[in-house]
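User: Predict the structure for this protein chain, please.
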Amino acid sequence: MPSGNAKHDKPVLLRAVEMVLAKPETIKRETEQLLAKYRRRYKADRADDDIKDLVAAKIISNYSYYAAFSGGASALTGVVPGLGTVIATFGGATADTALGMKFQVEMAMALATLYDHNILEAEEKRLCFIVAALGTISKAAKEGAKQVGTKAFISMARQYLKGATLITVKQLFRRVGVTFTRKALEKAAPFGAGVVISFTANKGLTWYVGTKIHDFFKTN
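Assistant: Here is the predicted structure, written as structure tokens:
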């Protein structure tokens, strides 16, 4: 039976991330410009695959620093479009986590563009949400234990991509939301929700997720 609240079947975190996410067109253009810049600089003495690795490292580094400084969403309401609305609608803890996930998804979109995925297409955009969420979940689940290896991560991502991607995105972001709400209550949220922000933790999380996403797109 159809529900009058169909638009709210999305997890709160996913709705919040979508409200603050940069336009895919902007991410695509900026990534292509960065690649062109690196090709001009290094084409004389480096293979194109090596140049793409350099660009990927730059992208991951940039987004790691964005995430490191993202703690305490209220301080960035004048900088990130839509963030004030997210805080007012969902509260500060959700906004902090959404801001961190915003950078993970945008990083995934940039890396996807680097490896010739068209992020303006709905399916490709969902792919970026999926690998960003998987990277975040795998890091959180493995804290204090052995990290997920590259082959294991790629295999896990491919398994998730076999199903309906829209449903998969919703399921994964629901898991991310539950995971980091619990961690916030434990005073250990990687994105600093409601606690003193850890520059190192946020930067380290994003770097980890970025390397896994890079490995995925480089081999797919």
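Confidence is low (pLDDT under 50) at residues 185-189, 192-197.
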